[in-house]
């Protein structure tokens, strides 16, 4: 009996011990299991976040594809949406996201599209994605798209390219680069001129500064007959090279150059521009490395007649129609059906053009130009668009106004005024001037985004010239108020020229565009003093020929871009013109060019991408 009781006690103790062990184990394992469960949950949430991000990216990619197929559709319904005065936003309902492997809907994405205001060209796409299993775990990505405009180039010309200063942005010439001053630099992306062009421009191409041939041989040199002889020494046309380059195969001698005794420069199928006295000085020199930018391909998107066209000017003109919104003013000499029309014939005085002056507070003044300064008979322009592609005479041109009459804003029906001045609205804005062959003067301090165009549409063949734009004074941004968002465009059918009487050390901001002619300042070749009067300009007294010549205008500072049919030239040769050009490219034009700046193609490019959450 006692033995049985003892066994029973032992069994009970064992059970208690087992229970205690199980309890202890359970107490230990509960947090372990909880931790594992928590970690699994976090892992699943992490996977859900990644899936949501991938779905959001898929939504962005979808709309990028959709907009290529349906340009102008911001609401994802296949229809073109009209731009408004301000940015328009569209919220597109959620769309299914299907797993390509299982063909099951595993999540959704929604889109928020921000349409640019009229005149601008930026599209912002926000895409938010989530999964079915975790609908509250959402990720959003944002991307901004833009189209390439002509203002992506610092300099774009349809004539021979000439570089007189450092160019920070891209330089492109459809006719090739011909003149590079050694001290100047540029991001050149166009080809060297062809040999057939050399005779036409023989008076001022094939620069002596670089001793480069005009036939483009320096871009793609025809390698001389170099080979490795039996003595393992490179030879040139059978003569051992003085570089005494050791070789084991003909390919080792491909970069051998010689020193030309006539020009004292290294040569290999064309001059490299590297000075030398012996062949030894040319070791390792090659024309390809010296001028590799000459081999760049042409830009297929640039077709001048369609890129800078009447269609672009017509679009700007159409934006002055009051029935579509407050987008601009039309300035002219007739009265079309437009409530924001400035009729110059309603203003007293003779009509010799129009003057526009921008004010720093975000307004502008309009003047009817009554009288002009005398014309300089010695004024010419080496723009490549005149006789034989060289000089264009401007002996009858007056580049400065003398008297003008102000247009009072509140006399114009439908105008928005600040005192006597016209107000520039916050949205993109245009000023279109159609005053026959008469010119337009633009100056002042700009606050806002505005494009000024001078044109006659359709062109009347009876006019001897198109209207030009002259810049008589500083034309700058109000940098303290713009916050980097101001943009000015000047578009002229003819020339954009700095006036003869413009001040020294001038600054010009904006994108300057000419359809048929050039940008710059006329060259005044030097007048003659005859009996106390200059014969090159009426009414100017003199005691010597020097009194009749143009003066050194100092430094021209520009901030923007130059787009011209002819070449840009500021008369920097003595004694006339701006001797120094401080060129600064406005990189903001890459994604936000001035209103209605001509685009190069319809393809949108990604400007930036970021994760919102």
TrEMBL record:
The chain crosses the membrane at residues 12-37. This is Type 4 fimbrial biogenesis protein PilX N-terminal domain-containing protein. Keywords: Membrane, Transmembrane, Transmembrane helix.
